[in-house]
Design brief:
The chain is an alpha+beta fold and about 270 residues long. The protein contains 4 helices and 13 strands. About 30% of the residues lie in helices and about 35% in strands.
Length: about 270
């Protein structure tokens, strides 16, 4: 097997790998995008001893943390309010803080209700949540809204980004291998077809060998298939310094992934 044939085989392998990785990244990203459909509203998932961030709208008259009261049905659950702030472009008022759980908290669903002082009409507004405590890490992972986290223990978006980066790196390597393949093919009197037209009267193809490689109009070259098997002759009709155009009859097996050989030299069949 020649050096060019080895590079060609490697480029095809890396290209297919890159395509599979990008398809996998897209699939994982879809898992992340659709996970919201599987999330239960107002439910905090955790292990005992974990703290979970919380943010929610509160009435406009709630302007200090002490006006937010929390009541849970278990003594190991509490609310920490870090700040109360304007809602900015969303309007209204928000608070930010954390739901805190203590080690040893019993597994299961626990109710958490936030309440605020009565408004001008005497109405007391409340927000209700459920703190779902899992007995262990495996149970928490099994209940994840992300299928990727259930199977692999990794949330969707970091995994999708990592896999996509690997896929793009593969295509970068394909570009470098293409440059090396072009040099190796030229050394063997060959080139890839980079422009292919199927016309009623025959085929027209353009490839990366030109006058600097000794080509001139009227010279006959050999058209090779993607597997490097000879398909038939083609006649050069136009020549530039580093590229040429040739025409051929309608040859069986010819396509955009063909090669051209000058002087009858060809690579061995790909594995």
């Amino acid at each position: 097997m020649s050096a060019a044939n080895r590079t060609l085989w490697l480029r095809r392998l890396v290209g297919r790998t890159g395509g599979v990785l990008l398809a996998l990244a897209l699939l994982v990203a879809v898992d992340g995008l659709t996970s919201g459909l599987r999330v239960e509203s107002g439910v905090f998932r955790c292990l005992a001893g974990q703290n979970l961030p919380i943010s929610a709208n509160v009435p406009m008259f709630v302007d200090t943390p002490d006006k937010i009261m929390a009541e849970a049905d278990a003594p190991g659950i509490s609310l920490r309010v870090d700040q109360v702030m304007p809602g900015y472009w969303m309007g209204g008022r928000l608070f930010a803080g954390a739901v805190q759980t203590e080690p040893g908290l019993a597994a299961g669903d626990h109710a958490l209700v936030l309440s605020f002082p009565p408004d001008d009409t005497g109405k007391i507004n409340t927000l209700s949540y459920t703190v779902r405590v899992y007995p262990n890490e495996a149970a928490l992972q099994a209940g994840s809204p992300y299928f990727t986290e259930r199977l692999l223990g990794v949330t969707a978006y970091p995994l999708a980004g990592s896999v996509a980066a690997l896929g793009l790196a593969c295509f970068g390597l394909v570009f470098l291998l293409s440059m090396r393949l072009e040099r190796q093919l030229a050394e063997e009197g060959m080139a890839e077809v980079f422009k292919f037209k199927r016309l009623p009267e025959g085929l027209e193809l353009e490839f990366g060998l030109g006058s600097r490689h000794g080509l001139a109009p009227g010279i006959e070259v050999e058209l090779l298939g993607a597997d490097m098997r000879a398909l038939g002759p083609a006649t050069v009709t136009e020549v530039r310094e580093t590229a040429a155009v040739a025409k051929a009859d309608l040859l069986e097996g010819a396509g955009p992934d063909c090669f051209v050989s000058v002087g009858g030299r060809a690579l061995l069949n790909s594995p």
